[in-house]
Amino acid sequence: MSAAGGAATQAASGERAASATAPPGRRRRRRSAVPWWFVVPAAVFYVFAVAWPSLQGAALSLTDWDGLSQERSFVGLAQFERLIADSAATGAIWNTLFIAVGITVLQNLVGLLLALGVHSKIKSRNVLRVALFAPAVITPVAVGYLWQFLLAPQGAVNDLLGALGLGFLQRSWLGDGDLALVAIVVVIIWQFAGYSMVIFLAGLQGVPEEILEASHLDGAGAFRRFWSVVRPELAPALTINLMLSVIGGLKLFDQVWVMTGGGPGNATDTMSTLIYKNAFQFNDFAYGIAMALVLTAFVAVLSSAQYLGLRRQPGGSS
Amino acid sequence: MNRSLRSTLVPGALALALVGATTACSSDVAGGGAAGGGGDGQTLAVAATTNEQAAMDAVIADFEEANPGVTVNATYSALDQYQTTTRTQLSSGTAPDVLFVWPGDGNPVAVDVVAPAGYLEDLSDEEWVADLPDGIRPVVQDTEGATWIAPISFSGIGAVYNMTALEEVGLTPPETWSELLQFCADAQEQGRSAFALGAQTNWVTQLIPFALTPSLVYRDNPDFAEQMAAGEASFADSEWTTAMDKNLEMQEAGCFQSDPLGTSYEATLTAVAQGDSLGVIQVNSAVPGVQGEAPEGTEVQLLPVPATDDPSETWMAGAAGSSYGINVDAANPDLAHQFLDYVMSPEGTNTYVTTNSALPAIPNDDFQVEPSLEALAQYQEEGRTYPFMDQQWPNARVQQTLFSVAQQLLGGQTDVPSALAAMDEAYAQG
Questions:
Q1: Is residue B71 within 8 Å of B57, Cβ to Cβ?
Q2: What are the domain boundaries of chain A?
Q3: What is the value of ipTM here, to two decimals?
Q4: Helix or strand holding residue A266 (H, E)
Q5: Fold for domain A77-311?
Q6: Which of B11, B19, B108 sits opposite A281 (nearest CB)?
Q7: Phi, psi torsion values for B26, nearest 5 degrees
Q8: Residue in A260, A266, A283 to test binding to B, most B beta-carbons within 10 Å
């Protein structure tokens, strides 16, 4: 980047920064002018419909309730002690982490690439945007059934591989425990990469053209423009995308339940499927609640840590 | 809201929302709630699984016709969802008047789970109770002899064969274990699989052990379930080992299509209907499923699965099937009793079981056995059936463990001793 060009970029950037911070006093006044008690009706409803029932439910983890009987006994932390010794729960935690990490990294990478692609001036970009976002509006259960058929031994995926002369790549996609977990991650990415794309796209549309033009004049290449100009501007979009995908990955249920039911064996059980099994199939409701609380703690800690970490990054959202 | 407060509240809200979503989870699909009578027209709420829909709808139509002014609102949901919804409705006092309940134990909505919790009305005084066959009583009554559910049908597990496809390839159904292995080899030579296995659908994995153990375990030792309950027997030290070994032997002999673990239940019905597989080891309710997808004129039969080389030693798994109880808080208990009495009458029962391709739990002279179920009817009459094993297990975890270990066995991730030890461990949880 030349000195003159660098000056042009800095000037454009400074101009924008100045305009963004021009009326701080007025904006602060406008924010503080909103009365806090506006939140009371919603807060009351939230406490009544969500917080109180949730706390009541959480208290059941300290009992031996089977989910049906009218009697229950206080057992203290016994359900949590069982959890530590339960190999199925340990396996489910690892599976959940694998899925959450896989989805978070790959879904956002694919979503970002798609956003960059459809943000360009290609002719069919609007059609592509709709097509790429479309899977995100399909109910996850329907997507699960769809892919269960596509990934069946005689399903379309193996048929396609055979037709392309890639028969050696044909696999038991959902019948092999290791592959099934990967297949689930791929299906989630297929469904929700378009969702991440839309959020990144919103971020990309906020990148000032003048800075991009200025950096172009400075001689910055495509990658340099992305890294030095676009990426910092995408930080808020990245923050929300990462948070949504981490939370979504940690509490994933529908697609796993429909595609594999947690099997073969327990190979694809996640915390959510195991919670469901214990609470509703094993007559072990209190243990299921204990698992749900652990999952809740997982989500809360990981998403908070991620939120705080990203917020401290340059350009991070606040 | 300042930054620090927001950063505190956001994760907190997430945590509460998640607990709420899990603990307060309920579904409105089955809906219904207790029926409300009144006025000229009385209404009754009935809930069942979707497998029962055709049969129940047929009975309801007849009942409404015979009782003008009465409306029966039936809601149906898939098995998993039905179990979840019904448990939630029962514990929250919003269950329907008449509800589908599984006989025995070992299921989240089994009579031995629901009745002791006080959610079902005692049906001991109903007229049909006296006619219940002895083989069915243990799974619909408690240890003191009180009857809690009305069993309508008698179901069986066997091999559902596409007889038309068998004829095409010149094969006949096997009657001994050796013939079964030869049958598998012969089917392979003809480019077919002997049996379709949809082990991706977890409940399917129990059916081969359930088809083999009546001959291998319970025929010689009908008290095995009681011995298990008394702690005097175990899965691992019984002929269950042989049954699980034979399951694996079938896999090694190429009895199944490729990749059973990646194949669903629905796909197996299609495979048998199209003749790609010659049969499928299933419950009798799979018969109409295969017939529905097969070309017109295809002959389908449910036959016993041999487990030894002596055909006289072959038994079938046969047990009380579709059963219903009355909600103790039913808004219209008289109408609920009237409806259940009608369903248990020969007329109601025959309509129900004919639609569902089953046999009546209480045999009656008016019932015409359909050709596909003649073998099951014969075995029932000869007393060569044993109830589905899960009906006598003490908790639902044993069956769920069987689902898991059977999949792991097929996938080579465990061995028979470990699998049965896991089932014993689940059984011991009581």
A1: no
A2: 77-311
A3: 0.76
A4: none
A5: MetI-like fold (1.10.3720)
A6: B108
A7: -155, 160
A8: A283
